[in-house]
Amino acid sequence: MSETRLHIDAVTAGYKPGFPILHGVSASVGVGEIVTLIGPNGAGKSTLVKAVAGFVHVDSGSISLDGRDITGISPDRMTEHGVAYVPQTDNIFRTLGVEQNLVLAAQRVERDRNRAIDAMFELFPPLREHKGLRAGGLSGGQRQMLAIAMALIAGPQLVLMDEPTAGLSPKVAQEVLQLIRNIASDNVSVLLVEQNAKAALRISDRAYVLAEGRNQHEGTGAALLDDPVIGEIYLGAWRRESA
Ligand SMILES: Nc1ncnc2c1ncn2[C@@H]1O[C@H](COP(=O)(O)OP(=O)(O)OP(=O)(O)O)[C@@H](O)[C@H]1O
Ligand SMILES: [Mg+2]
To answer: What is the pLDDT of residue 190?
Structure first.
């Protein structure tokens, strides 16, 4: 078991005071671990990730990173605390060039910015290849690659990703998931939300099932994939994907 990096402890949170969406949810992510949140629509997966990223007010409970309390820190200060968030939509500037997107993201980097951008081109060769292109002109998979690069550029300890494979073909989705696996092998911790549950569980160390804003189930990716009840209730929609 790896050392705990993110610790979410009994978090109750929501968009309006007195109307919690999450009811005492707990979860953790170890160093270099990929942990996936699965569950039905409206379960609170995105809300939990947004609570960690500082976008959703936490009414009670706590969130800590490497033992430091980060509960309630504003989203714009999360970079300095080692947290990067890749939202589900609008995660790149489509009208700007690929390189310009990285230049903007690098504004938050304290060390050598050009080197940080170069490092992203090393990691994602297709971005270098298309660096002059308008970001909106990239393929779906490349757009996600750019969004992930923009998150990684500041050297985060934890990356939060909300449905990075949404709208991608199974093949490209698989490539993006593999890329996420590579990121984690660099000791970056990843908290992932995925509708594409089966494919995500295959690359995940562990996963939590949320339902109606509560912890429902948890286990290793492999154990959840093999669990007939989980398979029936939560993975059924993806049977065609593994056929
Ligand atoms: N900005 C918001 N303001 C108020 N309520 C919201 C907001 N965003 C989400 N909700 C509500 O919070 C609940 C949980 O939504 P959330 O987006 O976290 O679910 P999810 O598990 O990510 O679902 P999906 O699989 O559809 O993405 C839902 O009832 C939703 O209507
Ligand atoms: Mg969601």
So the answer is: 98
- Out of 129, 155, 181, a domain closes at 155
Q: What is the tens place of the pLDDT at every residue in 211-232?
A: 999 999 999 999 999 988 888 7
| % pLDDT > 90, the chain | 85
Structure tokens that stand for 216 in this block: 């429902």
By C-alpha distance, which of 196, 202, 195 is closest to 224?
A: 202
Q: How far is the CA of 144 from the centre of ligand 2 (A)?
A: 16
Span 92-118, average pLDDT = 93
CA-nearest residue for atom 29, ligand 1, is 42
**Who lines ligand 1 at CB under 6 A?**
15, 21, 39, 41-47
Number of domains in the chain: 2
Structural domain harbouring 176: 4-82+156-242
What number does the ligand 1 atom closest to the CA of 49 have? 18
Amino acid at 100: Q
146 and 160 in a common domain? no
Distance CA 163, CA 67 (A): 27
Q: Are 115 and 233 found together in one domain? A: no
